Amino acid sequence: MTIDRDKALGAPPAVQEISWTTRDVLLYHLSLGAGADTALGPELHLTYERGLTVLPTFAMVAGTGVSTGTDPDPSFELPGIDIDLRRILHAGQDLKVHRPLPTAGSATLSSRVAEVWDKGKAAVIVRESTATGPDGEPLWTSRMQIWARGAGGFGGEPGPQTERSVPDRAPDAVLDTPTTPQQALLYRLNGDLNPLHADPGFARLAGFDRPVLHGLASYGLLAKALVGGLLDGDATRLTELSVRFAGVLFPGETIRTALWRDGDRLLLHATCPDRDDAPVLTHATARITA
């Protein structure tokens, strides 16, 4: 495994055209449990095409859903970086939405390696993607942090120091979000068909007792919890969401989100109360509008 940081950072971006339909948006929301909680009702703003709004985290699956007509390719090229894709982990995800996402549309997605950090025994690769609408204006910008085991030691900078995850005081609110046993089976229809989320035998080979929920599903569940539990169902008020993936969530478990307000910024910490509050999403922040 080799890393040429200068080549990676200097490579031209990869550009692709993507599109999505209302059906893709509805499926995404349903895969996050929209309409499944009788206490919340049918959540028609997420489950019905009339008056439909779009959770900002839909950006993570836009262009990979059922309307594409082809199976998605989970691989991607990283210029200047030759690593074993079996030894990488999705370590973190940042998203900034520049305007409300349309319920159906198209965009030009431009992706590049924005940073490479040397952690000694591992490397952290930051892949940045920007989606631009047909009008030439940006829709969203996302940054994926990839943890590449065994790829460190190339002499690069270690990157920024990790700050304290949450304040040293009681949270301002706690939101509990249950999942269902079939949650991962439904979520994978958004495009990530990794057998880790469906096949018990494959999951055991990977070191898990049973299939795990997608990290980006936990990410979407967090966004949905904030929109429904804090923002009166208005998805357009959630404009940024950043997390580190600290642990797995199994389908059927509950994800518990503690939050602290800091003006228009939220500090977040998500755990699994079914397993003694094992961490799921940490070093998490969100930005909301009034």
Characterise this structure:
By secondary structure, the chain is of the alpha+beta class. The protein has a domain at 173-288: Thiol Ester Dehydrase, Chain A, CATH 3.10.129.10. Helix content is 16%, strand content 34%. The protein is built from six helices and twelve strands. It has helices at 5-10, 22-31, 44-47, 183-187, 200-205, 215-229; strands spanning 2-3, 14-20, 81-82, 88-97, 105-118, 122-132, 138-149, 173-178, 238-245, 254-262, 265-272, 278-288. The strands form two sheets. The protein has a ten-stranded antiparallel beta sheet with strand order 2-5-6-7-4-9-12-11-10-8. The protein is globular.
